[in-house]
Amino acid sequence: MIKEIAKGMAFTLKKMGQTPITIQYPEEQKPVSPRHRGRHILHRYDNGLERCIGCELCAAACPVGCIYVLAAENDPKAPISPGERYAERYEINLMRCIYCGYCAEACPTEAITLGPRFELADYRRERTVVTKAELLESWPGFAEGRGPASPVGAGADQTGREDLDPGVKPRAAWATQEKSLDHQTAPHPGELGLPIDVPTVIEPGAGKTS
Amino acid sequence: MIGPDDLWWVLLIKCGVLIVFLLTAFAYLTLAERKISARIQLRYGPNRVGPFGMLQPAADGLKLFFKENVAPAERDKLLYLVGPSLAGGAALLAYAVIPWGTNSWFGHIFHWDIAHVNVGLLFILGVTSLGVYSLFLGGFASNSKYSLLGGLRASAQLISYEMAVSFALVGVVILSGSLNLETIVSSQHGLWFVLLQPLGFILYFTAAFAETNRLPFDLPEAETELIAGYHTEYSAMRFGLYFLGEYINMVTVCSIATAVFLGGWLPLLPWPPFVWIPSPIWFLGKVLILLFIMIWVRWTLPRLRYDRLMNFGWKVLLPLGLVNIVITGAVVALRA
Q1: What is the rounded distance in angstroms from the CA atom of residue A35 to the CA atom of residue A33?
Q2: pTM of the predicted structure, to 2 decimals
């Protein structure tokens, strides 16, 4: 018995001298697996055109109904995607998403994949609904989770952590999209035969009046 | 002769200093426990609050103060409060007679301990046994089966090991011929009792683990079987008092072991530079080494089964203690 106790004590004493293997998370980060299923990414072709053609197959495949796609006709002179249509709005409710990857499987153009980002917490519930501006591949290396070399386009503020500020303000990227949206012709999500709780970005305080 | 020790305000200051010291020791023992356990398990331990997590005890203490006191509705209202108060009180009380050292200042002998009682060892044994009441009353008053089982185990274990502790100390009492802790320490000049009583020291230190409810003898609060034993139903600062009692008891048993076996405040070797270091520092250093060993053992050894704990106490420690007494007594009698 004495021998075993001495052996155990010597072992723990030896372990005390070793360097801890803990990764000090916010400061040190382990690279995620290339197959990690984190926050979604909307990809582009190499020529800059968006891969998404607004077919809504991802929304249909989603088991929890967290994807909302609003398709619009491409202008043939200045197309946004190579297809007939493109996604005017593309929103994912991250509170609902179960990160199953069915959307990526359903996508005919490999436009949506699940990426390496996993720090998705926010102080405000509304902001966990991510918009197309945040999902779209906006710079080289976006899909690998790298920050922008130089910020390009809407949603380039991914690495700026102002979204940690709990103050009430609509996302800048969303505000610009909101203005470009044609409220006259764009149907309300409920009219498209989609469940009424399909996530849309809720303006803070808007719920009281409607 | 009326020395500075006997002035009432000196005593008050000593009490204040000692309480502050013990509470700080408690706070930083919890941190040390977590840090050492973390390093054994290749972790860092608390390192977010302050540099190296040094303010972690303050954060923990604040949390304990502001937490809600959840108490079972069917509790015994009076005893439920007596339990934790006794745990903290008994642990603090035992420290009154621990000899920290003596200094000669301005022609007066200055004692660092609060009370130099001539039966100090007996006083400590008596007061630390009071701790059993806190555990048992707490477990009983909670009116919960886990608490009751923990309380019962605590009383059985502590009473059994109290015997082993006392028997281990008798050898030293025979050698020094006194129950006064100061005399015991002074009689170790040149030769510490750990060398004359190695068996006694091992017996005492082993039983001390059981007395303080620490692994491998932490049966009264065995998490896997009893949730948290006698303090299952305690929360916030009431739990904090049990916690405090346990850690201050650790300091107390290590201090007794230091005073009785490791030469108390006496320096390692009786010549410079060792004698330049003040006596309380020597005392504190020895206590800290013993505390480290206690924490180290806790994170190495697994918990004993309850029947084996009792067997070990009654069938191994107690007979060995008796053998130690007989041999010591025989040797002292033959040399006289």
Answers
A1: 5
A2: 0.74
